[in-house]
Amino acid sequence: MAEGEGAGQPDAVLLAPLSEDTFLHNLHVRYKRDIIYTYVGNALVSVNPCRALPLYSAELVRAYLARPPYQLPPHLYAITATAYQWVRDRNESQCIVITGESGAGKTEAARVCLQCAVVAGAGGAGAGDAGAAGALTAAGTLLEAFGNAATARNHNASRFGKLLEIEFDFKGEPVGGHITHCE
Ligand SMILES: Nc1ncnc2c1ncn2[C@@H]1O[C@H](COP(=O)(O)OP(=O)(O)OP(=O)(O)O)[C@@H](O)[C@H]1O
């Protein structure tokens, strides 16, 4: 799971010197090795690989849930697992903001976060596709069917903004959720 030699700097904050050039060069070095995630402190930069990479699995979610943040390579799972643990252990609402230009990969990133939250809420037991979180996944697909369109920048562009909320009970299991869409 370690990134190994020549993978660049996993946290851009540690680049010396830190400039636009070194930042972009570091992202490029990592991208060439199919490493699409890089931290900037507690934020995560994701580069759209435009092809499926073997970066996602329930087993990997469990690995991120089991380790403190920053002990494993940068990943959306690390961000989501930390948010989930803070909801469960500190009883604090958490928010993950995903931003970027059209086609940057926001919708895919939200899907990955939701997948991670589903597995986390199922106690890391598996795909955990049932219940509130499974319904949210299905609702997202349904909204895309009506609210997405092909554009010059993205073959599956969301034509609306999306606020996705998941509610967890005191055991950390998802019990409800909402998707609010805005034009
Ligand atoms: N992590 C990823 N792995 C593989 N392919 C990806 C990934 N992220 C994005 N893509 C590809 O890029 C396309 C565009 O991504 P996505 O729809 O998530 O962009 P977006 O930022 O939500 O765009 P928009 O704002 O136009 O809706 C996806 O349909 C998919 O083909």
TrEMBL record:
GO function terms (MF aspect): actin filament binding; ATP binding; microfilament motor activity
GO CC field: cytoplasm; microvillus; myosin complex; plasma membrane
InterPro entries: Kinesin_motor_dom_sf (IPR036961), Myosin_head_motor_dom-like (IPR001609), P-loop_NTPase (IPR027417)
GO biological process, one term: actin filament-based movement
Annotated binding of ATP, by residue: 100-107
Ranges where the Myosin motor domain occurs: 7-183
Highest rank taxon of the organism: Eukaryota
Keyword line: Actin-binding, ATP-binding, Motor protein, Myosin, Nucleotide-binding
Keyword Nucleotide-binding listed: yes
Keyword field contains ATP-binding: yes
Pfam families, alphabetized: Myosin_head
Protein family per UniProt: Belongs to the TRAFAC class myosin-kinesin ATPase superfamily. Myosin family.
Name of protein: Myosin motor domain-containing protein
Organism taxonomic ancestry: Eukaryota, Metazoa, Ecdysozoa, Arthropoda, Hexapoda
